[in-house]
Amino acid sequence: MVIISFREHFKGEGEIPDSSFFLNGNKDMCFLIHGLTGTPREMAYTAKGLNEKGYSVKAPLLDGHNKPLSVLKRKTWQDFYAGLREEFLKVESQYDSVFVAGLSFGALLGIMLAHEFPGKVKAVTCFSATLSFDGWGAPKARALLPLGYFTPLKYYAYFKEEHPYGLKNERLRAKVEAYYKKAGLYDTSEAHLYGYPVIPVSCVYQNHLLAKRVMSILNEVNTPIQLLQAKEDDVTSPRNSIYIYEHVASKDKEIKFFEDSYHIITADQERDKVVDATVSFFDKHKQSIGVRP
Q1: CB 226 within 8 A of CB 253
Q2: What is the CATH number of the domain that holds 23?
Q3: Mapping DSSP to helix (H, G, I), strand (E, B) and coil, where does residue 210 land?
């Protein structure tokens, strides 16, 4: 569903609770990045699994994601990356090995970190990397997106989150659906739990711009990379992960598709398999030298 509104501010708009979190573990850090208009809670199950294996885990909130939608929709991918980069630099020197994992838009930001800090990021895992919104459940109106990208209309048009909300698990989907179905355009009362109920076209445009940037630098990325995605991803097709796998310069790379999940594989039916695959890949690349001074 596409919604168009020319109102900039809505009654009841306010700050959203910061859902970022940190789990203390050993001297190996996992830096987790949530998706666009999402929340660090998308990464909570993965974080718990990594932490149980000894890893320290940090999941920051992307810039603007605790703000009203009228603020978020004016942010650029450079804003998101700058805030994330700052959080990364706060922790990277404190750990023997730092690993990065991101979901959807967050996967692209993870590749950007690996590109800028090849000596600091030991390995990166991409969950459902989103270069384009070409999944089976993507809105039909996405074909009209290029028309909105280059006009001010992108700041006033929104995609309403719709079934299946990136989840095949019926219990989890029902919780998300209960909020999204009742939520008005600018209702952020539970956004810290489930993400924003709509996606501004301006944010989709920023995903498009970041994807172009990532595709342009893949041949310079040598960091070990793992690509995990559902075969039936409703948001972005497996072609996205395959493209990255085929074009990234990394010699150590792997790709795996899951049979019983949708887009948010970090929380869906096979979340345990996702944790196991991530832990296995990161374990291979732990720093072998002693603790840093």
Answers
A1: yes
A2: 3.40.50.1820
A3: helix
